[in-house]
């Protein structure tokens, strides 16, 4: 008679994972938050009266991203 190789004890034991503390996550959360604000500024507002850089170079680099995110630029 054939024997089955399947385990009869149920699911295999998963390794225990240590929780990540808020102190470990906070610097990364701040970093990504600032990064997103900077990116959003350059894509959404770097043009006209709020422009930090002169010329149209930044506008041309982020032009397609502006349209993708729904910011008007024409």
How does this model look, in words?
The protein has 3 helices and no strands. With 74 residues, it is mainly alpha-helical. The chain has helices at 22-44, 57-61, 63-69.
List the helices and strands and how they pair.
Elements: H1 22-44, H2 57-61, H3 63-69
The residue fraction in helices comes out at: 40-55%
Biggest sheet layout: none
Average pLDDT level: 79
In the predicted model, the low-confidence regions spanning at least 5 consecutive residues are none
Strand content: under 5%
How many extended strands? 0
Name the helix and strand elements from N-terminus to C-terminus, one letter apiece: HHH
Global outline: elongated
Total helix count? 3
Backbone CA Rg: 26 Å
- Class from helix and strand fractions: mainly alpha
Quaternary state of the chains = single chain
Distance between the termini: 77 Å
Q: What's this entry about, in short?
A:
The chain is mainly α. The chain is built from three helices and no strands. It has a domain at 28-69.
């Amino acid at each position: 008679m054939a024997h089955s190789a399947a385990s009869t004890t149920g699911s295999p034991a998963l390794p225990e994972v240590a929780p990540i503390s808020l102190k470990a996550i906070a610097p990364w959360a701040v970093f990504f938050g600032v990064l997103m604000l900077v990116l959003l500024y350059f894509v959404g507002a770097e043009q006209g009266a709020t422009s930090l850089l002169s010329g149209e170079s930044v506008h041309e680099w982020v032009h397609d991203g502006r349209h993708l995110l729904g910011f008007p630029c024409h």
